Amino acid sequence: MTQNSCVSNNNGTAHSDALHNFEIIGYRYVLSTICIFGIVCNLLNLCVLLQRRLKESPYTYLTGLAFADMLTLISISPASIVRSDYIRNENIFYLLSRLESQIYMPLANYFGQVSIMITVALTVERYLFTTYPLHTQRFCKPSYARRVIAIIVILCALTSIPRFLGDRLEKYVNIQENFRSSQCATYPFAIESSSINSSFIGQCFCVISHPRQKLIRLRSYYYPTMLVINQILPFAILLCLNLSLIHRVQLSNRFILDDLITRQQHSLTSTATTPTIKQKRLRDEHRLTKTLVAVVIVFLICNTFTIISYPSLVQFVTKRKYPNYINLGFRIQKLITNIMLLLNYSINFFFYCAFNQKFLDTLKTTFFSKKCICCRYSTTRDLTSPHGQLSNNSPFDSRSKTYQHRMNNASTRHNEF
Asked: What is the spatial distance between Cα 130 and Cα 287, in angstroms, rounded to a whole number?
């Protein structure tokens, strides 16, 4: 890619062309592909999880999780357009930057927060169900799960209001000799088209961000608090509960193996119907817990990137030995963090298929049985006449005629005797 004259003019600027080219590849190709891929996967999740066969409370949580993940990916998608260095019109770029700062990214953070809290609620429910199965049966119901999800949505909406009161954005246009790119909040570019002033064409442009004075003190407390509530605290809870669930899965594996050996040694009779149903239900619960463990492990890995990429934390750690890291290396770290988060919102479908046989069977029933039904319906239509009766050339009609002919011959022979 060519060198950006709006950047190279200013010595000591934090914006380098090499890093920007790497960012373009990440936002233009990688993030866009992951968003489209994740939206499709979550649509598949919803098509399966909304089936009546999956009516247990954990699948209600997984349905809410799929909705939250899909909406997060949809909200993040416009950011890949703004940060992909497509646009060279200052008015269009400024409008999209405002929408990204004040609508799209706050929505993405909101739905991401809902996704985290639903994961925590599902993990807590699974832990209580596996630890106290008799005492928690009245809580492990779909109606209760829907209430919990509704409470999570409302509380997350209330705590996300300050995110929509973001920084104040301004346009910055100047000739290349006087352009100071160190002030820019976005990557600067040379204007190629302008719908307001044609004299801007050829000048350098970027967007400058100014914090709202009335909200500076609120933000100094709000974002660290949200880091603890949305990242650190769920990380600690999920880590502890997931270790306990992994231990229970190991015990369950031993139980299933012992049960399989016992069933092979003793022949099963027709009176063993009730134990078989109970064992099948236990296996379904076991697979569901394994699915949750896999989802939580991926969440913990991706959430680690989010915690260590908090801007204030990074600046505090690197300001002495690497003072320019927050302006250079942190850009790549933030891109990698965004990629990991998007993957976390996108790949749950594969865990459901790999560890949950009931989900996989429902998936096959949802998408493949309908095709078979359509084939049978078309075959039946071919065998029938337009008035709904069997045609004269159909095999059913020939069989009926043959049967009738045999019956007439038999009656004739009977009359002869």
From this structure: 13
> pLDDT tens, 280-329?
666 667 677 788 888 889 999 988 888 888 888 888 888 888 888 887 78
Q: At what angle do helices 273-308 and 105-131 cross, to 10 degrees?
A: 140
**What would the pLDDT profile of 58-82 be if each residue is shown by its tens digit?**
899 999 999 999 999 999 988 888 8
* Structure letter (DSSP) for residue 162: G
Residue 404 above 70 pLDDT?
no
**Number of alpha helices (DSSP H) and beta strands (DSSP E) in the chain:** 16, 3
Q: What is the pTM of this model?
A: 0.78
Q: DSSP labels for 57-98?
A: HHHHHHHHHHHHHHHHHHHHHHHHHHTTT---BHHHHHHHHH
pLDDT at 407: 47
| 189, 18 Cβ separation under 8 angstroms | no
Distances (CA, A) of 272 to 227, 268, 276, 281: 53, 7, 6, 15
Cα–Cα distance, 66 to 73 (Å, whole number): 11
221 contact partners, CB below 8 Å, separation of at least 6? none
388 phi and psi, to 5 degrees? 90, 5
139, 107, 105, 106: which is closest to 124 by C-alpha? 139
Spatial distance between the Cα atoms of 80 and 26, rounded to a whole number of angstroms: 9
Would you call 14 helix, strand, or coil by DSSP? coil
C-alpha R_g of the chain? 31
User: With 70 as the cut, is the pLDDT of residue 349 above it?
Assistant: yes
Which residue type does 26 have?
Answer: G
Residue 229 CA from chain centroid, whole number: 20
> Which residue has 């209760």 as its token pair?
144
Contact between 58 and 292 (Cβ < 8 Å): yes
Laid out side by side, the sheet with 189-190 consists of 168-174, 204-210, 189-190
pLDDT, greater one: 403 or 322: 322
Burial grade of 79 (CB within 10 A; 0-12, 13-18, 19 or more) = buried
